[in-house]
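#struct-help
A.M.: can someone run this one for me? Single chain, 273 residues.
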Amino acid sequence: MNVFVFDIETIPDVAGGRRLYNLQDLTDAQVAEVMFQKRRQEAGTEFLRPHLQRVVAIAAVLRTADWCRVWSLGNPEALEGELIQRFFDGLAKYTPTLVSWNGGGFDLPVLHYRALLHGVSAPRYWEAGEGDSGFRWSNYISRYHWRHIDLMDVLSGYQPRAAAPLDEIATLLGLPGKLGMHGSKVWQHYQDGDIAGIRAYCETDVLNTYLVYLRFELLRGRLQAAEYLRECQLLQSILSVEDKPHFKEFLRAWEIPMPPPISPLPSPSQGLP
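D.P.: on it. Structure tokens below:
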């Protein structure tokens, strides 16, 4: 089974904001500030709703039976529509298990709206059994199916009040967590022209997500301890040969590649303690 773990980074859709709020005479930065102000008035936060976000980076870990790759889709100059089309084309090519952290609540809705805007074609992603009966009971769209595993959703028992941030879960597991940036700073980095920094940040986020996924596979018995360790070692070897500073930083901060051993339960003859 192929596994495709992904994460996106977004900025305000200033072109959409300019159109929605009739702000033709304002700069991008000014339009974004109006959008933030409206959101603060509406909800007490600057975090814009999914349909007002623009995708600037998509990072992925693709694990097949034969290899594993960590990268950002497209090149730094790629247009948003191209990045999104590449994402959905990858799903069509590999039909993977799609894995995210809060992908059902944020990343995928953003991709839906932006794909709609750019005229992207994604028939495999929207398949629900009409053309492929195998998708009837497990598809990318339905919340309780396994073809898309939103780790935040699953681990919280589908209870919003029990949801946790990826950074905190990763840190608790001995993983690096956030490195060098935060999602709230992406807009400033974009204005500064730091696309490379945004893509690097997105790649470290997707690495955290992938490693939490491996631990989840250990939790539900789809990986045994030795298999889990091999997957961690494989990822470490891949990152170590890549000449990328953020991968080297990630490796230095990765404290615990394997959970501590668990003492075996006593046999029935021994009795319980």
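A.M.: thanks! Residues 267-273 have pLDDT under 50 and may be disordered.
D.P.: also worth noting: Strands lie at 3-12, 53-63, 68-72, 97-100, 148-150.
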